[in-house]
Amino acid sequence: MSRRNKRSGNPKAQRLANAAKTQNSLIKLLEDTTNKDSILAHSSAKQILSVSRKHRLSLPGSAKTLLCRKCSVPFAYGSNVRTRIKYGMKIITCLNCENVRRYSLKFNSKV
Length: 111
Fold this sequence. Notes:
By secondary structure, the protein is α+β, with helices and mostly antiparallel strands. It is built from two helices and three strands.
């Protein structure tokens, strides 16, 4: 018998769950790397972005400030990234490609 009209591979929900699991493990790996593991950090940053783009997943909030979305370089605060807080915005500038990302800071105004 042939496999005609049969779907092969994982269903969409399973594929997205596997991609999210891979994304989270790469984020943990990126958070744990040190300066001596710069090759591992660069590789995991590129993999996080490629998995996110391939499966149309957004980056979790914790990972948005770990790497540059434009040049795929992991941020090492003090050496290749500048962070400023101005007018309720967190402004992150990659010093490799001069890309600027702005994130709004939400303050709890209830006293």
